[in-house]
Amino acid sequence: MTTTSQKLTTGKEARALLKAQLAEYLAVQPETIQTTHKWMKRVEAAALGIVAAFFLVALYGSFTWGKSNPAMIPIAWFAFAACLSLMTMINSLHSVLIRAFPTVILPGRMPRFVSGSGAVWIGAASLLGGLVLAGFWVAFAYSTATFNMALLVPLIQALAAVMGIGVVVSMIYSIYQKITSSR
Known about the structure:
Order of helices and strands: EHHHEEHH
Structural class: mainly alpha
Number of helices: 5
Distance between the termini: 29 Å
């Protein structure tokens, strides 16, 4: 199992390069991988429709708060956030199945193209992260719906701890990258 990666620049050229690398990678893969990629693109499109529907329901509930149960508004927004975690999980599963990352090129910070076992590890870690995030959002929605403060307070504390650890790890990783790239 090999892992290939390449540093990219930013902007439209980087997106075009990533798309070209993915297309080139898929062109030499067996038909089963190419078919899996096509089906996963369809699943991602359907999941995007689900996310859009949940967003519209949450937005509608927010604007018509006077006519509906006010407790349903945060629940709808938590459900929308859980659907975003669903998108993360589907994209991650896509990466694992075709052994290539990224499978979806979004605007913003451009990742490097990775294939092989490295892509599987990235996809598996992202899948696990998406599951954890979905669990948080579902728990927040449940504790809000039931007014269960005994569950809500530890969830907020756990979320704060995870975010704090994430910030510290991100800072250390950034410093490490700067130190190693300057050598």
